[in-house]
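Batch manifest line 608
LIGAND: iron/sulfur cluster
JOB: complex structure
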Amino acid sequence: MSELHPVIAKVTERIVARSAKRRRAYLDLIERGREAGTNRDQLSCGNLAHGFAASGEDKPAIRTGQAMNIGIVTAYNDMLSAHQPYGRYPEQIKIAAREVGATAQVAGGVPAMCDGVTQGQSGMELSLFSRDTIALSTAVALSHAMFEGVALLGICDKIVPGLLMGALRFGHLPTILIPAGPMPSGLANKEKVRIRQLYAEGKVGRDELLESESASYHGAGTCTFYGTANSNQMMMEVMGLHMPCASFVNPGTKLRSELTRAATHRLTSIGWDGDDYRPLGHCVDEKAIVNAIIGLMATGGSTNHAIHLPAIARAAGISIDWTDFAEISDVVPLLARVYPNGSGDVNHFHAAGGMSFIIRELLDNGLLHRDILTVARGDLTDYGKEPVLEDEALQWRDVPASRDENMLRPVSNPFSADGGMRLLAGNLGRCVMKVSAVDPALWTIEAPAAVFHTQDDVLRAFKAGELERDVVVVVRFQGPKANGMPELHKLTPALGVLQDRGFKVALVTDGRMSGASGKVPAAIHLSPEALGGGAIAKLRDGDLVRVCAQQGVIEALVDAAEWDARDMPPAPPAPYDTGRELFALFRHHSDLAEQGASPLLAAMETEL
Ligand SMILES: O=C(O)[C@H](O)[C@@H](O)[C@H](O)[C@H](O)COP(=O)(O)O
Ligand code: SF4
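JOB STATUS: finished
ARTIFACT:
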């Protein structure tokens, strides 16, 4: 058992010191919440009567107030295949709660956007701020103050970050996230990508493409690529906010329903009336946040968490930045290759040993904080085991070795000595690049820029044959203040075709990519963004741009005097349709990507 790695210890101490004032204010807030804030003791008879009026068989128990009443915040809808199973969860949770003398009520629902449905559409420009809308909706749900525990039902991209941002403001409440699991594997991801590239080249038609996509996304459960949703699941494990290694058990199985039941029972054991009080605000501390960064690096997780994790951390009074990510990336080895970082999907990853193996390996090698307050009985050690049913009973067993070293490896033999995400900085600003899915021969690209203001313009240029060369494709005015910072994942097939034709291709943008984006080097989240004067706005067609993940550099190779003398181009018109105009308030108040790109947090912090 190794000592904690000195760099991880150093980064953690730096975060603790940087966060001290706000974290103290946060801990005071949740202390007040426990003593005199949002809980049932403060409600009048009228409040209570309204609260349990429709609670049926649970009414007597809720009325007496002698046992935990669990507030369920659910992100159920039929748009996200990952969330579709949640339709039946409230009833399951209510039954499980009654088994231990507790009760449960749906405190409220939150919206959930499927980034797969909106990818490449106007709706994608609502995606990032749907996270903050979820945070607000979670606060509305929990503000009923009828609860002594919280069950959060959410899996996908912006949903887990939004649920946590909202629930953390009620951090005096013990809280557990209950996952629903991945859909069974469908069409292999590599075949999906092959058909997409053929379609981008005009070599197959829409019917064949739809057939391929439907064979890939074919049922209930989370999509099986390692994108932002499944990176959320990984983070909840290394932060200890799920039942141990519950993430990647398929929906509709006995093991899945037993894990939901166990989560409900466990939640009733960590309330303030017992002797094992585990409030969310104490579970999500600096060490848990550092564990999440480590997990991203060790598994090649989604770049979106370079934005969401700072926002989640700030909701708990903790401040992190991309330098923290970069220093942790330098010392955390890449232990998993899950599509798009490899060929297997999360089902194969789980079968190979999954999170249980990853966590035990990292713990044994001093690469995770073990001593965090989890929702399980112990510390993070509990998460180095996988859940199984033995004689119909839920058990956790060791995973002594990877069952498939093509996708899951020990620290002694990693895929890469350092993590899957890099910080790049230079005269264009600061940005991140996911390298775990990029051929190392392509980690440095130096080529003339082709500058665009929309991804559709890029695709038009591609179809017109204007990009058949070494090129740095620049797509700007895609930042949070400009248009809500959409994912530009629709560019992946076309840029992949150019790369496969042997051209040196990179993407540079103040926007985002999907966590499922892969093989094309993409320098993303460039801050400051173009709108408001970020340097990316100065770039012109033909400028030589250097993107280098080895040295962590991104720069325009333009004469300094000329560069300084350049004007900024006029900004494109503000987005206006698909409800985007309703989010203007959020765009106007958004923070930098590195701070979480949230319109909610700065205002909250100024009131401290
Ligand atoms: O960050 C992510 O993981 C993506 O937003 C993902 O949730 C989205 O659904 C992708 O668009 C899926 O990939 P395809 O678009 O390739 O199906
Ligand atoms: S993983 Fe992405 S595409 Fe799949 S259900 Fe979740 S949001 Fe939608």
